[in-house]
Amino acid sequence: MSKKLFISILVLCILTLGLLVLDLMKVIISKWIIIILMCAIAGLSVFFIVKGEKKAPKVISTILAVVTIAISFFAISMSPYFNSISLHNFVAAAPYDAVVSADDACDEIDYATRTFQRIHPKHSDEAVMKTADKIKEQIQEDGGVTVNQLSADIERVLSKAGDPHTYAWADYNDYLVPKDYDMNKMEKGGWHLVKVNGLTAEDVLSQNPDLVSFDTKSCGEFEVDRFLNPGGIPYLQILDFYGFDTQKDITCTYENESGEQMTETYHPDDFMSYDEYLEKNVKEEDEEAEEAEPPIATFEIDKDKSLAVLTYNDVWYEDEYKECLQDMFTQVKEKGIKNVVVDLRGVGGDRMVMDFFVNTKAAEEFIRYLDVDNYNGMSSTWRLGFYDLNKNEENCKNKRYSDLTFNGNCYVLTSSDTFGPASTFAMLIKDNDLGTLIGEPTGSDPNGYGEDVWFATPKTKIKVIVSTKQFYRADRDCKDKCVTPDIECDADKAFDALYEAID
Questions:
Q1: Residue 410: helix, strand or coil by DSSP?
Q2: How close are the terminal C-alpha atoms of the chain, in Å?
Q3: Of 377, 349, 350, whose CA–CA distance to 363 is shortest?
Q4: Around 411, how many Cα atoms within 13 Å sit in the side-chain half-sphere?
Q5: How many other C-beta atoms lie within 10 A of the C-beta of residue 490?
Q6: Which residues contact 339 (CB under 8 A, 6 or more apart)?
Q7: What are the pLDDT digits (tens) for 181-207?
Q8: What is the C-alpha to C-alpha distance for residues 501 and 96, in angstroms, rounded to an integer?
Q9: How far apart are CA 50 and CA 44, in angstroms?
Q10: Residues 273, 306: Cα–Cα separation, whole Å
Q11: Per-residue pLDDT at 218
């Protein structure tokens, strides 16, 4: 009997831990299944301790049971990743025009708000809950909604948190695109969608501010533009999401890099599935035009002006980036350069959803070349169920490269479309008085959120993306919604202002 009990406990522990891994990687597992297994393990363990004869098996089974129950408890009550789809394969939403009953739609909204309350640092936000109640009442009056409308409704709820990393979105198996859209012509000409029915991204944001999760106006406009331009193609589902009447003609205005504009009008029956479109429109491969991915950063030295300009294409921490910094500061030292400029204008949007901890690494690597012993970093609070894990990054020791320490002047150029990690970079320089910022206020709130986790509503599979961390800028007393330059000017005149500052 003792042997059977030991084996039973062992099997249940392996099964429980296996299901937790399965939930994380592949399929959603009900927490009640985990709770039942935890109770079974606990009950059998107690029984085995009382009835078992040999001491060693009892000790081993008890340790195994305690560890399994502890891990399971953490997973279902504290881990933000339980029941998430962050590591799952692509999860497609139900067809965009499928009708969802009022009760089912309200259940989907309740799932989104429960998820928000469970893992978001701003979990008690009244605006989110009040908006959810109001929208559910309207859905009950209407008798139901389409999947695409429900996606927009959930976004209206989550947008009240004022967090660009917390939002709702439906990924469909097959988007609808204009059959006459010339993919090759648009790509070769560098055409970009700038207006829909005469409305710019700024207009769409002003008319439907609750359809976008953002913390600053610049961030909101960027998000609208990003979703209206997925690959440059005007998808019908996205147009419908932002409130355009897709039962009527849609007029799209495109603009190229030269500022030329052209207009195309699409009729409701002009749209076809993306798969069908690709069958009839083979993308041309132009090997000569194909370019390698741009480097993370490049630099130029102007010896006459005693100036080194570090230009970022992305703020990302990799060996390539570290080598670029080392090469630049080596030349700065050899040539006696007195001014280093970091150009962050228009940088940072591509990786806005990434963890701020990762994003600060690039800035921290740069600071290692500056003549400073200690500085304040970006602190954070990670929501783990009922427990908040605080990480204090005040008074961080700077692990300087002593042989390449730069003692001159540091300048950072910013613009309204300096987002995410680039905005964090600028904040660390400004808040620690490590340099002078020139240009426009950045587009991100440095006291923001991140480390988002992805979920899917049970019935329609609409994605619900929720932040789990709150971040605090280096200057904890500063509550500005952006990083404000020391010398404000238009972004395209930043170098003019720079030259005046160094003369």
A1: strand
A2: 88
A3: 377
A4: 24
A5: 12
A6: 305, 306, 307, 308, 408, 409, 410, 411, 502
A7: 888 888 888 888 888 999 988 888 888
A8: 55
A9: 10
A10: 57
A11: 78
Which residues, at least 6 apart from 137, have a Cβ–Cβ distance to it below 8 Å?
none
Average pLDDT, integer, range 103-115: 97
Question: Per-residue pLDDT tens for 24-67?
Answer: 999 999 999 999 999 999 999 998 888 776 788 889 999 999 99
pLDDT at 353: 40
- Packed helices 2-25 and 55-77: angle between N→C axes, nearest 10 degrees: 20
Q: Look at residue 1 in the predicted model and tell me its pLDDT.
A: 62
- Residue 346, SS3? coil
Contact between 409 and 502 under an 8 Å Cβ cutoff? The reply is yes
CA separation for the pair 181, 399 (Å, rounded): 54
Residue type, 276: E
Which backbone phi and psi does 246 adopt, to 5 degrees? Answer: -80, 0
Q: Which token pair is 84? A: 């998430």
The answer to whether the Cα torsion of 490, 493, 496, 502 is positive or negative is: positive
> Which of 340, 332, 311 is CA-nearest to residue 410?
340
Phi then psi for 472, rounded to 5 degrees?
-125, 135
Tokens (6 digits) for 163: 């967090």
The whole-angstrom separation of Cα 124 and Cα 140 is 25
Please say whether the beta carbons of 268 and 239 come within 8 A.
no
Quick one: DSSP state of residue 291?
-
Model confidence pLDDT, tens digit, residues 267-307? 999 899 988 888 877 655 554 444 567 888 899 999 999 99
Instruction: State whether the Cα torsion 314-319-324-329 is positive or negative.
Output: positive
What burial letters (b/e) apply to 289-318, b meaning 16+ CB within 10 Å? Answer: eeeeeeebbebebeeebbbbbbbbebbbbe
Q: Please, are residues 154 and 461 in contact by the beta-carbon 8 Å criterion?
A: no
What letter does residue 404 receive in the DSSP assignment? G
State the DSSP string of 422-485.
Answer: HHHHHHHHHHTT-SEEEES--SS-SS-EE--EEEE-TTT--EEEE--EEEE-SSTT---SS---
Query: For residue 382, what are its two tokens?
Result: 């990670």
Query: How far apart are alpha carbons 89 and 93 in whole angstroms?
Result: 13
3-state secondary structure of 347: coil
Residue 99 is predicted with a pLDDT of 96
C-alpha gyration radius of the chain: 27
